[in-house]
Amino acid sequence: MQGQTAHVNLWVATPFALATGFFSGMVGVSGGSFLVPLMVLACRVPMKVAVGTASVLVSATAAMGFLGHAVSGSVDWSWALPQVPLAVVGGLIGGKLALATKPTALKKLFATTTLIAAAFMFWNAFA
To answer: Can you tell me the distance from the alpha carbon of 43 to that of 60, in angstroms, rounded to the nearest whole number?
Structure first.
């Protein structure tokens, strides 16, 4: 949010950022699902600031994960490349909508999508 600053205790935030980068790189997720709740709950960052900040941090994590997987040859380029423009358009639309959405609605949407994703992952891991 313009004009709003969040004062974050780096002694609290730094271990979370390191752990998020580590686990995100291991399992191939963006890290936003870890960063946003940690910033909101542990660092008391407003929801919209957490979403925006997580977007910056996630881009760095994703770039490093991409490099590691690309170098190791574990990317299916025939599937990945056509998806890139769609992901960019989706990201632009989602970012625009997030700015126009109330923080409480963002929290509920985030919690719901995280729970649904967790349920699918749990089912696939143990079923």
So the answer is: 20
CA angle 37-39-41, nearest 5°? 60
The domains of the chain are located at 10-126
Q: Model confidence over 43-89: pLDDT tens digits?
A: 888 888 888 888 888 888 788 888 888 999 999 999 999 999 999 99
Structure tokens at 32: 């936003």
Place of tokens 């002694």: 11
- Number of other residues whose CB lies within 10 A of the CB of residue 79: 8
Tokens of residue 98, six digits? 């997030």
Name the amino acid, one letter, at 24.
S
The average pLDDT across 96-109 equals 89
- Alpha helix stretches (DSSP H) within the chain: 10-27, 32-41, 47-72, 77-99, 103-126
Q: How far is CA 5 from CA 77, 98, 124, in A?
A: 40, 18, 41
